[in-house]
Amino acid sequence: MSLVTLLPFIVLIGAMFLMTRSAKKKQQQAIEMRNQMQPGSGVRTIGGMYATVKEVNEDTVLLDAGPGVELLFAKNSIGAVLTDDEYNRIVHGIEHDLKSDADLVPDDASSLTETDEPAADAAAASDDKPVDLGKKDVADEPADDAVADEAKTEQPKKTDGDSEAK
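The structure corresponding to this sequence follows.
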């Protein structure tokens, strides 16, 4: 047989070896996680039930699922050991205190535009006229804009391209 015909079999055996190796690692991690359970830890079973560990034995775990409800489970039926914050958040709805509340993004943008001065001072400082962004005819402009018209007339006029600076 040539090397070309053996190559697919070698690749297949290598892939099977890598798959079993990763599965063994996951099983080992699950066993370590289950061995680290202590009374008082919050857990989630493979069925999705949340409970507190009351007692850990060789192959079984006694869980406290509520007032007066104690359940005996096999150790293999524990899907995850939860941290205290995660368990309290899921079961009791208690959010843990964040250390950096100021770094959170607000729900609305109103807090991003606030200034140090009170709102009354800010309203008094602004013009009370509404801003109209539409086009206006020159005849419709009020007399208050006479100063703006004078500033427009003082602008240099365009030339044909001749300039004195050469």
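The chain has four helices and five strands.
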